[in-house]
Amino acid sequence: MVKLVKEIISKENNPIILLETENKKYDKTILIIGVFHGEEPQGEYLINEFLKLNLSETKNKLLFIPCLNPDGKNKNKRQNSNGVDLNRNFPTKNWTNTGNKEYFGGNEPASEIETRFIIDILNNYKIDAVLSIHAPFRIVNYDGPANELAQKISELAGYPVQAEIGYPTPGSFGNYAGVERNIPVITLELPENETNEGLWEVNKPVFEYLARKY
To answer: Could you tell me which of 86, 84, 83, 96 has the C-alpha nearest to residue 170?
Structure first.
């Protein structure tokens, strides 16, 4: 069973929810996040497909944010309703206001309600790993002590592991949770030219692994 444990309302009055499996006993706690960027909606579809399965007896407790950025999703834009790239808004040592419109990290770190929502979750749960679902690079990127997990997910999904995304990411969630908080963080970059149904067939084993074997 899955229950709603937290809900906030975005600037444009859209709900942002945290769901949790009701495990009485569990080994690890895994956080799965969809739609950091509004033009990358695939993660919400995958999470919703997984939620249709029987999750009553998983080895690990699962936390789900199906859609972190509903305002951006509704406009098919990367940023939230304030024009902030949520994946540049975390209070990291390398956060900076670059002035870059596309990757604008806000006027100050953790300025956005969506960012603070995740920070609050990390402060209130002992998170053992995070799966953050993005597009379009078709790679398994990782931060923090997640190399072994990245290799396993690569084996399951068939996407290559790439430790560096290839460009600077000041204020990113990976830097905040993975590098600075030492939580294994997987950024699963999905290919953009596949159907949601096809993506689910490829990545269902990843979700099953995190729930039942990791």
So the answer is: 96
Contact 129, 149 (CB under 8 A): yes
**Can you spell out the DSSP letters for 161-190?**
B-S--SS--TT-HIIIIIITT---EEEEE-
> 165 pLDDT band (50/70/90 cuts)?
confident
Residue 204 has a CB neighbour count (10 Å cut-off) of 16
Choose the CATH number for 2-212 among 3.40.50.970, 3.20.20.70, 3.30.450.20, 3.40.630.10. 3.40.630.10
How far is it, in rounded angstroms, from Cα 153 to Cα 150?
A: 5
Give, to the nearest 10 degrees, the angle between helix 196-212 and helix 147-157.
140
The per-residue pLDDT for range 54-108, each reduced to its tens digit, is: 998 899 999 999 999 999 999 999 999 999 999 999 999 999 987 777 899 999 9
Is the distance from CB of 114 to CB of 69 less than 8 angstroms? Answer: yes
Domain boundaries, the chain: 2-212
pLDDT for residue 101: 79
Q: For strand 139-143 and strand 29-33, is the pairing parallel, antiparallel, or unpaired?
A: unpaired
Q: Beta 129-134 vs 185-189: how paired, if at all?
A: parallel
